[in-house]
Specification:
The chain is of the alpha+beta class. The chain is about 25% helix and about 35% strand. The chain has one domain (about 25-140): Yope Regulator, Chain: A (2-Layer Sandwich), CATH 3.30.1460. The protein has helices spanning about 70-80, 85, 115-140; strands spanning about 5-10, 10-15, 20, 30-35, 35-45, 50-60, 95, 100-110.
């Protein structure tokens, strides 16, 4: 007979395969590659223990350097950057970092416990919603954070 729940690293897994944190502070962080970028995901549990928060951050691009062949792309990227926050969905925040990278951050509420399928579905939904913005950034020549030189 299976115990009511098993421990696997930072997770408790119940008989139905649903995940919850082993302790509230032990929720893992992980990354997912999407279109030349890495989505960083952290999870935390709300005080009522029935809900959780997925904290998402992704460097969506980097304004090209003013040196070399990127001058025209830099002008286009700098013209687009101030417009982006007003175009983003509610709850998405955009920040220009000191290295000229654009960091997008948001959080999603999830029910706990959550299945692995439910977790992947939430992340996939966010990434599909993000894709048109990435297409626009790519079109104006923002460097991909993983491929920049």
């Amino acid at each position: 007979m299976l115990p009511p729940e098993l421990s696997l690293g930072p997770f408790k897994i119940d008989r139905a395969g649903m995940l919850s944190p082993a302790t509230p502070e032990s929720f893992p962080r992980f990354g997912v590659r999407w279109r030349g970028r890495v989505l960083h995901t952290g999870m935390r549990q709300c005080h009522d223990h029935a809900r959780g928060i997925l904290e998402l951050s992704i460097r969506i691009g980097r304004v090209p350097s003013s040196t070399g062949l990127g001058a025209e792309q830099r002008r286009a990227a700098l013209a687009l950057a101030p417009l982006l926050p007003s175009l983003l969905p509610d709850g998405w925040a955009l920040q220009l970092l000191p290295d000229h990278a654009l960091l997008l951050q948001t959080s999603l509420a999830i029910a706990l416990p959550v299945s692995a399928q439910g977790l992947v579905t939430e992340l996939t939904s966010f990434l599909l919603q993000l894709t048109p913005y990435l297409d626009e950034l790519d079109a104006v020549g923002l460097c991909h954070p993983l491929t920049q030189h």
